[in-house]
Amino acid sequence: MILVTGGAGFIGANFVLDWIAQVGEPVVTLDKLTYAGNRANLAALEGDGRHTFLQGDITDGALLEQLLAQHQPRAIVHFAAESHVDRSIHGPEDFIQTNVIGTFRLLEAARSYWNGLQDQAKAAFRFLHVSTDEVYGSLAPEAPAFTEQHAYEPNSPYSASKAASDHLVRAWFHTYGLPVLTTNCSNNYGPLHFPEKLIPLVITNALAGKPLPIYGDGQQIRDWLFVKDHCSGIRRVLEAGQLGETYNIGGHNEMANIDIVKRICALLDELRPRADGQGYATQITFVKDRPGHDRRYAIDASRMQNELGWQPAETFDSGIRKTVQWYLDNAAWVENVQSGAYRDWVQKQYA
Ligand code: NAD
Ligand code: DAU
User: Fold this and answer.
1) Which residue has a Cα nearest atom 35 of ligand 2?
2) Of 1.10.3720.10, 3.40.50.720, 3.50.70.10, 3.40.50.2300, which CATH number belongs to 2-192+226-251+299-314?
3) Residues with catalytic annotation?
4) Among 4, 94, 140, 295, which has the minimal tally of Cβ within 10 Å of its Cβ?
């Protein structure tokens, strides 16, 4: 059995669904259900004896100790976080609480639990910390992609809080010997992505006839990875990663934001043309830039490939088509998330 924190969010839910489908080992999901957590993301596992959902906060040390003692996981995969850069700029407090204090509490609870395990279980235990390429800061246009050796230079409250959590994880390995692994991944996209982030925001705004906001000149570069490929990378690191090491996960897919948005518009023109015959790109609107906006991220994932034999399965073309189609097929999910109605749905379903 494994414990997954943040398993009702975008990547966590994809991870739990794929894990149950492909590995089949039971999962306990711990999630606070913030605005970003949605039990509907895991609805397919309702009634499946291999999945247990617990609503709770990773800053609650007593709860963590109790659930580790009760469920005895062989690994913890830690996704729970405040994840949106724009929100961190407007209100950093929750990012410090969850990403820094929460990770600290989880490490302490894991250490106490791990210390109490018998030899074999103790040797097999893993704490996998899911982090981001944003901890490395911004790359100059011609600079090589981030390797695992790149210096930490976080620029936003979000990335600073994630960098702090990475350092805590590292210290718990070096000081206490806790068997940790850390992954730093580039921008994910795919099903279940909350529509505050660029790709789902653009798809849903386009379909709703709303403006498609591009920050600044739209030439900022992100390195996009289909979420299922991130999940397969995490499974591989959990299986074969070296303790105390970090692994950069990415899809070799650097693209400027404006080109991403134009690609989505073109796909929507093909799959769901506007009634007035105009292209969705007419909805593109340039707006004020994000403060401290990092210009470029790019991941060098060669360690994942050379040491662990991992490669992404999707190209950007195949992944973005699947993603746009998923949003077209799941209008009810979008409506629930946008209206906040899923909270009522949760109360009705799980009261
Ligand atoms: P998300 O915001 O969609 O989901 C986060 C989940 O964590 C939500 O279900 C939320 O309810 C839960 N959560 C928040 N605070 C909590 C707390 N105090 N206790 C318990 N649960 C809590 O985020 P995501 O995009 O799925 O990201 C998941 C992880 O992956 C994060 O650690 C993020 O930093 C990292 N990451 C994300 C990306 C990306 O592109 N989205 C890329 C690299 C790394
Ligand atoms: O790189 C990994 C990170 O990717 C993760 O650690 C974060 O959790 C995740 O949110 C993501 O951060 P970004 O800030 O890169 O993602 P976001 O989707 O918010 O923005 C992507 C790019 O698009 C960024 O350059 C800002 C820009 N943008 C974003 C929004 C929401 C726009 O131009 N307009 C928008 O409306």
Assistant:
1) 198
2) 3.40.50.720
3) 133-134, 158
4) 140
